[in-house]
Amino acid sequence: MVSNEEEKVTSQEQGEAVNPEVEVESEETEHGAGDEEQALDSRIAELEDQLAQAQEQVIRAQAEVQNARRRAEQDVEKAHKFAVEKFANDMLPVADNLERAVQSFEGADEASKPLLEGVELTLKTLVDALGRNNLEVVDPEGQPFDPNLHQAMTMVENPDVEPNTVLNVFQKGYTLNGRLVRPAMVVVAKA
After folding, report:
1. pTM
2. Cβ(80)–Cβ(111) under 8 Å?
3. Which of 28, 40, 48, 133 is 20 to 30 A removed from 117 (C-alpha atoms)?
4. 82-190 — its CATH code?
5. Nearest to 84 by CA among 125, 138, 129
6. What b/e string do you get for 55-80 counting C-beta neighbours within 10 Å, with b at 16 or more?
């Protein structure tokens, strides 16, 4: 039989023998844990960078979608706004011809007065219909010349008016929702 003291010595010897191994393992574990922590930290940083890039890509994609939607809405709005432009261009010569017909009745006898009234009413109806569709008449007689709305056909000296004033209108112009459809053809006073 082994005595208690021998057991104590044996267990101490075993403990001493075990303790140095434990210390060596704990040092290796701490050293290994430090490497693992660094690896994890670098992996976390890498993943955070990837996340930031993905978030930036999402924001850009959302902005592109919003821009595309806005452009599409503007295209639809313009299509609605200017859908009658081709039709209006086809109707403008009709208005011009009716105006010429009214002018040709000047000085006519009383017998042609009902015909004149009919042509004037037809012209008024056409101009009103064009106006309801946002087609506005540009009749600049007596106004300053505006190259954005008027086309000068000729320039005439006239000391009674200021230079660059519209003296006469050969053909009225038209705008559709503020956009020029046809410029007014005018005679302009020169200095």
Report:
1. 0.59
2. no
3. 133
4. 2.30.22.10
5. 129
6. eeeeeeeeeeeeeeeeeeeeeeeeee
In angstroms, the CA 80 to CA 52 distance is 42
Confidence label for 15 from pLDDT (cuts 50, 70 and 90):
very low
Q: Calculate ∠ Cα 109-167-126, nearest 5°.
A: 55
d(C-alpha 169, C-alpha 184), whole Å: 7
- How far apart CA 103 and CA 76 sit, in angstroms, is 41
Burial class (CB in 10 A: 0-12, 13-18, 19+), 181: buried
- Mapping DSSP onto H, E and C, the string for 105-119 reads CCCCCHHHHHHHHHH
What pLDDT, in 10s, does the model give residues 34-66? Answer: 788 899 999 999 999 999 999 999 999 999 999
CA distance 91 to 97: 10
